[in-house]
Amino acid sequence: MARIVMKFGGTSMAGSERIRRVAQIVRSQADAGHEVAVVVSAMAGETDRLVNFCREANPLYDPAEYDVVVASGEQVTSGLLALTLQALGAKARSWLGWQMPIHTDKAYAKARIGNIDAEALIASMQSGEIAVIPGFQGLSDENRITTLGRGGSDTSAVAIAAAVKADRCDIYTDVDGVYTTDPRIVARARKLKAVTYEEMLELASVGAKVLQTRSVGLAMKEGVKVQVLSSFTDENAPNADSIPGTMIVSDEELEKMELENEIVERQLITGIAHDKNEAKLTLTRVPDLPGAVSNIFAPLADAAINVDMIIQNVGRDKGETDVTFTVPQADLVRCTSILENAREKIGFNRLISDTKVAKISVVGVGMKSHAGVASTMFTSLADRKINIQAISTSEIKVSVLIDEDETELAVRVLHTAYGLDAE
Ligand code: ADP
Ligand code: ASP
Ligand code: MG
């Protein structure tokens, strides 16, 4: 017998029929003798709908009220799943974020989980009751509801798994594991049997939305065993206990699996991700002087705007230079207005923004000890006449910024170039 946290995403919860399938999967784990807590997302599309209502009500919405609105999607599905489980004859109840409670900071719309009072939850699970928990939501110390940022139910699930010391956290979604790249873009993407926390963290942070970045960081920190698998299965599908999905594991665990021949030798590149949610900004004719760059980025940091790629061109004759960088598209309006307000202090000429860009990244721990990964990327893209607008690297990642229209082509070309295509 194990203690398991199961999480179901939006497509898994989209409508009565899907929820019935989820209830069957949950029930089969409870029937196998496990103690079960379930974390659910809102129905697919529901959070987008609610976000739009907020924007229509007030474009400069108060994030605390936004949270009141957008947290409601998960309240509906948690109640519906508890009802459906009861209809199947199982004992189940819902636990809203404030009822446990799941404590968070007060960064409304992107709150971070602090601690979770899980005692009552554990007692209920031990009594054989299935706990159904709405993902995405928590409670601030101002006693107001918070949400954890888009895709946050993954993080709720991992945090609850850590709080109840679960043996496993199974993340059910609409694909049956983590692939070498988004299987919706590359039909020949390969499913990975296991991927390390470090690589998954990097893949998630550069756009592989199968897991929210924070959920992976938390799982790594707390040592939570995470499995990604599909809820779109029939009754004869293998049970989650046989690990049919992708396990997120430590480096040591992966090495052990390799030694035991459970997985074939690792490739240099583990995966490729794309992100169409970045915007590129260029400030022209910035003075080429000490402090100039700081005048640009300090106010953005103060506004908690995350700057990713940065390029400063070589200074021109007149002691001026252009500075180009990327920010999340969602922050573009705020970013532009901050820079316009600081125009005099920074002393730039023009501010040019471009949202028709995409960031393509290749990730793999193998590149720590291998040269040539970046050059393969640049050559393969050049062969297809794909122009690179910016580059950034980390120890296990190379990212390039390209025209958004070339996203799919670039991902496919690189997938082939690194030998990742399935037979
Ligand atoms: P959920 O609603 O269950 O949280 P998401 O839409 O957030 O699901 O994440 C699942 C989606 O992630 C898949 O449908 C797939 O298109 C996308 N995805 C992107 N990169 C990958 C990858 N490397 N492996 C698997 N899925 C990926
Ligand atoms: N419903 C939320 C969202 O769409 C949280 C989640 O599904 O993980 O972002
Ligand atoms: Mg998700």
From TrEMBL:
Pfam families documented for this protein:
AA_kinase, ACT, ACT_9
Transmembrane stretches, start-end? none
Name a GO molecular-function annotation. Answer: ATP binding
Binding-site residues, substrate: T47, E74
Keyword Nucleotide-binding among UniProt keywords = yes
Q: Name one GO cellular component term.
A: cytosol
Which Gene Ontology biological process is one annotated for this entry?
homoserine biosynthetic process
Under SUPFAM superfamilies, the record lists:
ACT-like, Carbamate kinase-like
| Source organism of the structure | Sphingorhabdus lutea
Catalytic activity, reaction form: L-aspartate + ATP = 4-phospho-L-aspartate + ADP
Q: Which InterPro entries match?
A: AceGlu_kinase-like_sf, ACT-like_dom_sf, ACT_Aspartokinase, ACT_dom, AKii-LysC-BS, Asp/Glu/Uridylate_kinase, Asp_kin_monofn, Asp_kinase
Task: Name the Enzyme Commission number(s) assigned to this protein.
Answer: 2.7.2.4
ACT domain spans which residues? Answer: 281-365
The answer to whether UniProt assigns keyword Protein transport to this entry is no
- Name the UniProt record assigns to this protein: Aspartokinase
The family this protein is said to belong to? Belongs to the aspartokinase family.
Which keywords label this protein?
A: Amino-acid biosynthesis, ATP-binding, Kinase, Lysine biosynthesis, Nucleotide-binding, Transferase
